[in-house]
Protein backbone atom coordinates (compact mmCIF):
# COMPACT_ATOMS: atom_id res chain seq x y z
CA UNK A 1 0.00 0.00 0.00
CA UNK A 2 1.32 3.40 -0.90
CA UNK A 3 2.07 5.89 1.84
CA UNK A 4 -0.90 8.18 2.39
CA UNK A 5 -0.42 11.93 2.43
CA UNK A 6 -1.95 14.01 5.20
CA UNK A 7 -3.13 16.67 2.76
CA UNK A 8 -5.17 14.07 0.86
CA UNK A 9 -6.76 12.44 3.91
CA UNK A 10 -10.57 12.81 3.98
CA UNK A 11 -11.85 14.13 7.31
CA UNK A 12 -15.27 13.84 8.93
CA UNK A 13 -17.24 14.57 12.12
CA UNK A 14 -18.72 12.39 14.84
CA UNK A 15 -21.26 14.26 16.96
CA UNK A 16 -22.67 12.72 20.15
CA UNK A 17 -24.99 15.71 20.60
CA UNK A 18 -23.26 16.37 23.91
CA UNK A 19 -25.24 18.28 26.51
CA UNK A 20 -23.18 21.00 28.18
CA UNK A 21 -23.49 22.07 31.82
CA UNK A 22 -25.72 25.13 32.02
CA UNK A 23 -27.33 24.54 28.62
CA UNK A 24 -30.43 22.66 27.44
CA UNK A 25 -30.90 19.80 25.00
CA UNK A 26 -32.51 22.33 22.65
CA UNK A 27 -29.24 24.29 22.80
CA UNK A 28 -27.38 21.08 21.95
CA UNK A 29 -29.44 20.49 18.81
CA UNK A 30 -29.03 24.11 17.73
CA UNK A 31 -25.26 23.81 18.18
CA UNK A 32 -25.19 20.55 16.21
CA UNK A 33 -26.84 22.27 13.25
CA UNK A 34 -24.36 25.13 13.46
CA UNK A 35 -21.44 22.71 13.68
CA UNK A 36 -22.71 20.72 10.70
CA UNK A 37 -23.06 23.87 8.59
CA UNK A 38 -19.63 25.07 9.72
CA UNK A 39 -17.85 21.80 8.95
CA UNK A 40 -19.63 21.48 5.61
CA UNK A 41 -18.09 24.80 4.57
CA UNK A 42 -14.69 23.63 5.83
CA UNK A 43 -14.73 20.57 3.56
CA UNK A 44 -15.56 17.82 6.04
CA UNK A 45 -16.89 14.79 4.19
CA UNK A 46 -19.36 13.27 6.67
CA UNK A 47 -21.34 14.22 9.75
CA UNK A 48 -22.27 11.17 11.79
CA UNK A 49 -24.38 10.90 14.93
CA UNK A 50 -24.21 8.06 17.44
CA UNK A 51 -27.00 6.12 19.14
CA UNK A 52 -26.77 6.19 22.94
CA UNK A 53 -29.42 5.81 25.62
CA UNK A 54 -29.88 6.75 29.28
CA UNK A 55 -26.88 9.08 29.32
CA UNK A 56 -27.53 12.59 30.63
CA UNK A 57 -24.74 14.12 28.55
CA UNK A 58 -25.70 12.50 25.20
CA UNK A 59 -28.85 13.61 23.35
CA UNK A 60 -28.58 11.51 20.16
CA UNK A 61 -30.85 8.65 21.26
CA UNK A 62 -33.32 9.22 18.38
CA UNK A 63 -30.47 9.01 15.91
CA UNK A 64 -32.39 8.77 12.63
CA UNK A 65 -34.51 11.80 13.60
CA UNK A 66 -31.41 13.90 14.25
CA UNK A 67 -29.81 12.71 11.01
CA UNK A 68 -32.83 14.03 9.12
CA UNK A 69 -32.66 17.32 11.03
CA UNK A 70 -28.97 17.81 10.20
CA UNK A 71 -29.43 16.76 6.57
CA UNK A 72 -32.30 19.22 6.22
CA UNK A 73 -30.10 22.10 7.41
CA UNK A 74 -27.10 21.26 5.20
CA UNK A 75 -26.59 20.82 1.47
CA UNK A 76 -23.63 18.63 0.53
CA UNK A 77 -22.08 16.95 3.57
CA UNK A 78 -22.92 13.27 3.98
CA UNK A 79 -24.97 12.61 7.10
CA UNK A 80 -25.26 9.28 8.84
CA UNK A 81 -25.02 7.07 11.87
CA UNK A 82 -21.90 6.31 13.79
CA UNK A 83 -23.78 4.27 14.50
CA UNK A 84 -27.16 2.65 14.75
CA UNK A 85 -26.97 -0.17 17.31
CA UNK A 86 -28.65 -2.77 15.14
CA UNK A 87 -29.55 -5.28 17.89
CA UNK A 88 -31.78 -2.56 19.36
CA UNK A 89 -33.93 -2.53 16.21
CA UNK A 90 -35.62 -4.64 13.60
CA UNK A 91 -33.58 -4.61 10.37
CA UNK A 92 -36.77 -3.88 8.46
CA UNK A 93 -37.52 -0.76 10.53
CA UNK A 94 -33.94 0.48 10.09
CA UNK A 95 -34.24 -0.09 6.34
CA UNK A 96 -37.50 1.89 6.25
CA UNK A 97 -36.06 4.76 8.30
CA UNK A 98 -32.83 5.07 6.33
CA UNK A 99 -34.62 4.40 3.07
CA UNK A 100 -36.83 7.37 3.90
CA UNK A 101 -33.77 9.51 4.69
CA UNK A 102 -32.03 8.41 1.48
CA UNK A 103 -35.12 9.27 -0.55
CA UNK A 104 -35.35 12.72 1.03
CA UNK A 105 -31.61 13.39 0.79
CA UNK A 106 -30.29 11.35 -2.17
CA UNK A 107 -26.62 10.28 -2.19
CA UNK A 108 -26.03 11.88 1.22
CA UNK A 109 -26.97 9.23 3.81
CA UNK A 110 -24.61 6.71 5.45
CA UNK A 111 -25.62 3.81 7.69
CA UNK A 112 -23.02 2.78 10.23
CA UNK A 113 -23.97 -0.29 12.26
CA UNK A 114 -22.80 -1.38 15.69
CA UNK A 115 -23.40 -4.49 17.77
CA UNK A 116 -23.24 -2.93 21.25
CA UNK A 117 -26.37 -1.65 23.03
CA UNK A 118 -25.13 1.92 23.36
CA UNK A 119 -26.21 1.93 26.98
CA UNK A 120 -26.19 0.01 30.26
CA UNK A 121 -27.59 -3.51 30.58
CA UNK A 122 -30.82 -2.53 32.37
CA UNK A 123 -31.68 0.07 29.72
CA UNK A 124 -30.75 -2.40 27.02
CA UNK A 125 -33.31 -4.84 28.41
CA UNK A 126 -35.95 -2.10 28.26
CA UNK A 127 -35.08 -1.39 24.62
CA UNK A 128 -34.81 -4.95 23.40
CA UNK A 129 -37.38 -6.73 25.55
CA UNK A 130 -37.60 -10.36 24.49
CA UNK A 131 -34.99 -9.71 21.79
CA UNK A 132 -32.20 -9.56 24.37
CA UNK A 133 -30.21 -12.20 22.47
CA UNK A 134 -30.23 -9.98 19.37
CA UNK A 135 -26.45 -9.31 19.40
CA UNK A 136 -25.91 -12.95 18.42
CA UNK A 137 -27.96 -12.28 15.28
CA UNK A 138 -25.93 -9.22 14.28
CA UNK A 139 -24.12 -10.83 11.29
CA UNK A 140 -27.40 -12.20 9.89
CA UNK A 141 -29.24 -8.95 10.57
CA UNK A 142 -26.63 -6.97 8.60
CA UNK A 143 -27.32 -9.23 5.61
CA UNK A 144 -31.08 -8.79 6.07
CA UNK A 145 -30.65 -5.04 6.09
CA UNK A 146 -28.54 -5.15 2.94
CA UNK A 147 -31.25 -7.21 1.26
CA UNK A 148 -34.06 -4.86 2.29
CA UNK A 149 -32.14 -1.87 0.87
CA UNK A 150 -31.37 -3.61 -2.42
CA UNK A 151 -33.41 -3.66 -5.61
CA UNK A 152 -33.16 -7.46 -5.69
CA UNK A 153 -35.69 -7.73 -2.84
CA UNK A 154 -38.60 -6.59 -5.03
CA UNK A 155 -40.11 -10.07 -5.27
CA UNK A 156 -39.96 -10.77 -1.56
CA UNK A 157 -43.10 -11.04 0.58
CA UNK A 158 -41.51 -8.55 3.05
CA UNK A 159 -40.23 -5.33 1.53
CA UNK A 160 -38.87 -2.02 2.85
CA UNK A 161 -41.02 0.73 1.38
CA UNK A 162 -39.33 3.21 1.23
CA UNK A 163 -35.84 1.78 1.31
CA UNK A 164 -35.85 -0.84 -1.39
CA UNK A 165 -33.36 0.04 -4.13
CA UNK A 166 -31.78 2.94 -2.24
CA UNK A 167 -28.61 0.89 -1.61
CA UNK A 168 -27.70 3.08 1.40
CA UNK A 169 -23.97 2.56 2.07
CA UNK A 170 -23.49 0.30 5.10
CA UNK A 171 -20.49 0.52 7.42
CA UNK A 172 -19.47 -1.85 10.18
CA UNK A 173 -18.51 -0.06 13.38
CA UNK A 174 -16.39 -1.62 16.05
CA UNK A 175 -14.25 -1.34 19.13
CA UNK A 176 -12.89 -4.90 19.08
CA UNK A 177 -11.36 -7.46 16.76
CA UNK A 178 -14.67 -9.29 16.29
CA UNK A 179 -16.11 -6.45 14.25
CA UNK A 180 -12.97 -6.38 12.10
CA UNK A 181 -13.48 -10.01 11.09
CA UNK A 182 -17.12 -9.32 10.17
CA UNK A 183 -16.38 -6.19 8.12
CA UNK A 184 -13.60 -8.02 6.29
CA UNK A 185 -15.68 -11.09 5.50
CA UNK A 186 -18.60 -9.00 4.19
CA UNK A 187 -16.36 -6.68 2.17
CA UNK A 188 -17.74 -3.60 3.91
CA UNK A 189 -16.01 -0.38 4.99
CA UNK A 190 -14.93 -0.35 8.62
CA UNK A 191 -15.04 2.45 11.21
CA UNK A 192 -13.18 1.92 14.48
CA UNK A 193 -14.00 3.64 17.78
CA UNK A 194 -10.42 4.55 18.61
CA UNK A 195 -11.73 7.67 20.34
CA UNK A 196 -12.74 5.63 23.40
CA UNK A 197 -11.48 2.07 22.83
CA UNK A 198 -7.93 2.35 21.45
CA UNK A 199 -6.64 -0.91 22.95
CA UNK A 200 -7.50 -3.16 20.01
CA UNK A 201 -7.30 -0.57 17.25
CA UNK A 202 -4.04 -1.62 15.58
CA UNK A 203 -4.85 -5.33 15.91
CA UNK A 204 -8.32 -4.82 14.46
CA UNK A 205 -6.86 -2.76 11.63
CA UNK A 206 -4.46 -5.56 10.71
CA UNK A 207 -7.17 -8.24 10.89
CA UNK A 208 -9.50 -6.23 8.67
CA UNK A 209 -6.90 -5.52 6.00
CA UNK A 210 -5.45 -9.04 5.95
CA UNK A 211 -8.82 -10.79 5.76
CA UNK A 212 -10.71 -8.36 3.53
CA UNK A 213 -12.76 -9.97 0.76
CA UNK A 214 -13.77 -7.68 -2.12
CA UNK A 215 -17.52 -7.30 -2.51
CA UNK A 216 -19.99 -5.70 -4.90
CA UNK A 217 -19.82 -2.49 -2.85
CA UNK A 218 -16.10 -2.31 -2.02
CA UNK A 219 -13.06 -3.61 -3.88
CA UNK A 220 -10.36 -2.67 -1.35
CA UNK A 221 -10.33 -2.20 2.44
CA UNK A 222 -11.48 1.20 3.69
CA UNK A 223 -10.93 2.28 7.28
CA UNK A 224 -12.15 5.27 9.25
CA UNK A 225 -10.50 5.94 12.59
CA UNK A 226 -12.54 8.07 14.96
CA UNK A 227 -10.29 10.21 17.16
CA UNK A 228 -10.57 12.89 19.82
CA UNK A 229 -9.29 16.29 18.71
CA UNK A 230 -8.90 19.43 20.81
CA UNK A 231 -7.31 22.09 18.63
CA UNK A 232 -6.57 25.65 19.70
CA UNK A 233 -4.19 28.42 18.65
CA UNK A 234 -1.66 27.27 21.30
CA UNK A 235 -0.78 24.01 23.03
CA UNK A 236 -1.52 25.59 26.39
CA UNK A 237 -5.04 26.62 25.42
CA UNK A 238 -5.74 23.20 23.90
CA UNK A 239 -4.58 21.45 27.08
CA UNK A 240 -6.85 23.71 29.12
CA UNK A 241 -9.86 23.02 26.86
CA UNK A 242 -9.14 19.29 27.01
CA UNK A 243 -9.89 19.16 30.73
CA UNK A 244 -13.62 19.10 29.85
CA UNK A 245 -13.01 15.95 27.80
CA UNK A 246 -10.97 14.41 30.59
CA UNK A 247 -13.70 15.13 33.11
CA UNK A 248 -16.22 13.47 30.77
CA UNK A 249 -14.10 10.32 30.54
CA UNK A 250 -13.50 10.42 34.28
CA UNK A 251 -17.27 10.18 34.68
CA UNK A 252 -17.25 7.05 32.50
CA UNK A 253 -14.42 5.51 34.56
CA UNK A 254 -16.04 6.27 37.93
CA UNK A 255 -19.65 5.70 36.87
CA UNK A 256 -20.49 9.26 37.99
CA UNK A 257 -21.63 10.77 34.72
CA UNK A 258 -22.31 14.49 34.46
CA UNK A 259 -23.06 17.01 31.75
CA UNK A 260 -19.98 18.27 29.93
CA UNK A 261 -18.18 20.41 32.49
CA UNK A 262 -16.27 23.69 32.08
CA UNK A 263 -12.48 23.38 31.74
CA UNK A 264 -10.35 23.60 34.89
CA UNK A 265 -6.86 24.90 35.55
CA UNK A 266 -5.59 21.72 37.23
CA UNK A 267 -6.99 18.20 36.78
CA UNK A 268 -4.87 16.99 39.71
CA UNK A 269 -7.34 18.74 41.98
CA UNK A 270 -10.14 16.56 40.56
CA UNK A 271 -8.80 13.06 39.86
CA UNK A 272 -6.60 10.60 41.68
CA UNK A 273 -3.66 8.78 40.03
CA UNK A 274 -5.69 5.65 39.21
CA UNK A 275 -8.45 7.68 37.57
CA UNK A 276 -5.86 9.66 35.64
CA UNK A 277 -4.23 6.49 34.35
CA UNK A 278 -7.56 4.98 33.30
CA UNK A 279 -8.64 8.14 31.47
CA UNK A 280 -5.30 8.47 29.69
CA UNK A 281 -5.55 4.87 28.52
CA UNK A 282 -8.95 5.59 26.97
CA UNK A 283 -7.55 8.76 25.40
CA UNK A 284 -4.53 7.09 23.83
CA UNK A 285 -5.77 8.20 20.42
CA UNK A 286 -6.36 11.88 21.15
CA UNK A 287 -4.80 14.85 19.41
CA UNK A 288 -4.52 17.88 21.66
CA UNK A 289 -2.54 21.00 20.82
CA UNK A 290 -1.89 23.93 18.56
CA UNK A 291 -1.49 23.56 14.77
CA UNK A 292 2.21 22.61 14.78
CA UNK A 293 1.72 19.95 17.46
CA UNK A 294 -1.34 18.53 15.73
CA UNK A 295 0.46 18.34 12.39
CA UNK A 296 3.31 16.35 13.94
CA UNK A 297 0.91 14.05 15.78
CA UNK A 298 -1.26 13.42 12.72
CA UNK A 299 1.69 12.71 10.41
CA UNK A 300 2.96 10.11 12.85
CA UNK A 301 -0.50 8.58 13.30
CA UNK A 302 -1.11 8.33 9.56
CA UNK A 303 2.32 6.82 8.93
CA UNK A 304 1.64 4.20 11.60
CA UNK A 305 -1.93 3.29 10.64
CA UNK A 306 -2.38 4.16 6.94
CA UNK A 307 -6.07 4.83 7.60
CA UNK A 308 -8.25 6.00 4.72
CA UNK A 309 -10.22 8.66 6.60
CA UNK A 310 -10.18 10.34 10.00
CA UNK A 311 -13.37 11.14 11.92
CA UNK A 312 -13.14 13.82 14.58
CA UNK A 313 -15.09 14.17 17.79
CA UNK A 314 -14.41 17.21 19.95
CA UNK A 315 -15.87 17.53 23.43
CA UNK A 316 -15.25 21.22 24.11
CA UNK A 317 -17.32 23.20 26.61
CA UNK A 318 -17.40 26.52 24.77
CA UNK A 319 -19.25 26.25 21.46
CA UNK A 320 -17.19 28.91 19.70
CA UNK A 321 -13.97 27.19 20.79
CA UNK A 322 -15.40 23.93 19.44
CA UNK A 323 -16.12 25.50 16.06
CA UNK A 324 -12.60 26.95 16.06
CA UNK A 325 -11.12 23.53 16.87
CA UNK A 326 -12.71 21.96 13.79
CA UNK A 327 -11.51 24.88 11.70
CA UNK A 328 -7.91 24.59 12.91
CA UNK A 329 -7.87 20.83 12.40
CA UNK A 330 -9.07 21.20 8.81
CA UNK A 331 -6.31 23.73 8.18
CA UNK A 332 -3.69 21.35 9.60
CA UNK A 333 -4.78 18.54 7.29
CA UNK A 334 -4.91 20.74 4.20
CA UNK A 335 -1.38 21.95 4.80
CA UNK A 336 -0.19 18.37 5.29
UniProtKB/TrEMBL annotation:
PANTHER family: LUCIFERASE-LIKE MONOOXYGENASE. Residues 14-306 form the Luciferase-like domain. Keywords: Oxidoreductase. CDD domains: Flavin_utilizing_monoxygenases. Pfam families: Bac_luciferase. GO terms for molecular function: oxidoreductase activity. It comes from Pedobacter albus. SUPFAM superfamilies: Bacterial luciferase-like. Gene3D superfamilies: Luciferase-like domain (3.20.20.30). This is LLM class flavin-dependent oxidoreductase. To bacterial alkanal monooxygenase alpha and beta chains. It comes from the Bacteria. It is an enzyme of class 1 (oxidoreductase). Its EC number is 1.-.-.-.
Amino acid sequence: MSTRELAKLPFSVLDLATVVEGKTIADTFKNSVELAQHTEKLGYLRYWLAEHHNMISVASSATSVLIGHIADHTNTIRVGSGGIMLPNHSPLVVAEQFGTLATLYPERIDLGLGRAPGTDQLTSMEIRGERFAAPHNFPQDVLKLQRYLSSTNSNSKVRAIPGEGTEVPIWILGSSTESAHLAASYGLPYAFASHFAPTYFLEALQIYKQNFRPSAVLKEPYVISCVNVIAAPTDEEAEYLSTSLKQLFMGIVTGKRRLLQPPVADMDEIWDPMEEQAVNQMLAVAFIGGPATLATQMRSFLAQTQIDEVMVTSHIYDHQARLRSYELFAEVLRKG
